[in-house]
Structures are given as structure tokens and as C-alpha cells.
Amino acid sequence: GKVTSVEVVPAVAHIARQIVAANGYDDTVTVHNCRSDELALDAMGSRADIVVSELIDDHVIGDGVLQSHQDARRRLLVPRPVVIPWGGKIWAWPLQMRLPAPKDVNLNELHLPRCAQVIMSHPYYSFKLQHSPERYFKPLADPVHLFDFDWGSGPLDTLADSRTTEGKVFTFRTSGTFNAIAILFTLQMDSDPEHDYSACMDNPDTHWDQPIRFLPTELSVLKGQTLKMIATHNEHDVEQIKIRGVREDMQLGQVGIALPKKMSYKLHVVLEE
């Protein structure tokens, strides 16, 4: 059989060709320096029956995995290919999060991660929670399952379309200050759940960061209280999260840089009654 490899970074493609040749596979493996959606079927010779990819970022879908698999299944793959990984899941984890202040310095009014979030082009701040001291954050509720993705065998025409969840009710397991949401994901390597890969806290060895979305207003929550989460994803990430059921007496006020209302979209979290 033949193997076709695509790598968009020229230096990486060059090294890949050297590795292939050094191991005696240059008659079997062809490395193309391009994106998969730039690859012509003629360059492959025939449609592939297996595809192995790593088009994953902290949001699972941020590196174009949906669009790339949609294009590959249309042009480059046999009708029922083996796809590894074949899908993923996105979760949202309600947290209380505040970095500790240096000795004799009060950072409560600054809240550095949130300030950085406001001036960055991306609406989140990434942490490796699995390597962070427990005092940096406190889980307030179980992770909320937002989206399932099946890029291996899902409906082709709508594979890369935006979607909005139904309202997901979640219950606070402990009292605290709800001010952050961590985005977590799992990968389905095949149809056996035993082979799933987790980028969540149950896998301390994961190298992935967890994107943190900060609420525009911190909320005081009590054990047993419930709120509802509604999320929308676009082609690249979780575009917006709405927290519904917020009462006025829960709102503690804004922390960090005070945002003009017209800029509050940068946080991509909306609070609703």
C-alpha cells in the first residue's frame, strides 16, 4: 500500500521526508508540503481508506478539523473510511478562579488573567490546570457536556456548521464565587470508549491547556443552586456561552479592567436572568 502525508510547515515537511528516506520508506510514503484541502486526488493516485490526523487544538476544532475532514471525505477518501480519531466531545467546567497575590500585594482588583484576556485577540486565557496548585482554582460543579463531534461518519453536508446546544442545567456542588469556565475535551479514537483520550483533569499527563472563559460579572453561588448553560460553536471554537437563571442578588460585580458595554463581546460569556 501507499501512504500520503501532508504537512503545511515547510521545515517540518523537509525533516519528515528525511526521516522517511532514512528508514527506507521513500517508495511507500510521500510527503506533500501543503494543506489537505490543497492536495489533488491525482497526487495520491487513488482515494485513501484510512486517515490519521492531528488537527486538534485546545478547543478540539480550532485547527480546522471539521472543514478538513469534510473536504477529505468528499474528495480524497473512500465512502466508509477508517478515521483516527473519528470524533470528540467538548465540556464546560464551572470554576472559581483567582491567581494568588504575591506577598503584601493585593491583586483582587487587577485579576491578571482576565485583564490579559481583554487585550488579547482570543477570548480566553489558557492554563494547564492539571499542573496548577489547587489553591488557584476551585471546581464548583461537574463539567457540563456541550457538544459531540463525529467528523469520521457524521452527516457530510452539515459537518462544519455552527450549532447551539439546548439549555444544559447544572447544579453547584459547593458554594463559592463563580467567575470562570474551563473548556475541556475528549477524543474518540475509535468506537471503543476504553480508547478515548482525555484532555480533562482525569488525565494529569495531558499536554493540552484548558482555555478559560471569564464571566463578565462574578456570581455568588450556593451549594445546590442551579443555572442553565447554552453554548454555540462556530468552525473554530466555542463562540459564546450564555449562563441563564442569574439573579440580581448573585452578582458581585466586575473584577479587572472595566469593559465598555460595546467591548463586552470579547469575553464571549453572557449572563441572563
From TrEMBL:
Recorded hits in Gene3D superfamilies, A to Z, give:
Hnrnp arginine n-methyltransferase1, Vaccinia Virus protein VP39
Enumerate the GO terms in the molecular function aspect.
Answer: histone methyltransferase activity; protein-arginine N-methyltransferase activity
Q: Which SUPFAM superfamilies match?
A: S-adenosyl-L-methionine-dependent methyltransferases
Q: Which N-terminal residues, if any, form the signal peptide?
A: none
CDD domains according to UniProt: AdoMet_MTases
Keywords assigned: S-adenosyl-L-methionine
Top-level taxon of the source organism: Eukaryota
Name recorded for this polypeptide: Uncharacterized protein
